[in-house]
Model the fold of this input.
Amino acid sequence: MPLERFSAAWREQYVQGTALPSSGCVFCELGTQEVAESTGVLWRSRHSYVALNAFPYGSGHLLVLPYAHVGELDALDEEQYEDLFWTMRLTVRALGRAYGADGLNIGMNLGKAAGAGIPDHLHAHVLPRWNGDTNFMTTIGETRVLPESLASTWAKVHGALNIP
Done:
């Protein structure tokens, strides 16, 4: 039986540590980009936006972020807070339409001690999950295999977000 091979070359920048800019906030910069597949930005509201996670845990892994450069929920004013959670709910609905998954994970790592990779800019992870989506590659090989490209994820979710 021949050995099956897979490639995750798109993760090379992450592994080499060159994925994030050396100065400034990657999320503040991303927040200025237009809604386009090339930027990974999927949706904009008044105070928040939705973007692809450039280094996803699984297919459909999105980020919901405020434009405000704050690291804690309490630092958002009421309007920003309500908009962030409205945008998160919209994202959940869009992922449901786009993927029909068995469930979803929503999480925020608030602070470096909680695992935030970028602790100074609040963000929520929203990703679809399926029954049995953890296999030997994840549990033994400590590797994730994603069956779709970021471009494919963008197209699926962008279309779902634009349904009223």
The first helix runs from residue 12 to 16. The chain has a mean pLDDT of 82. The chain has one domain: 21-158.
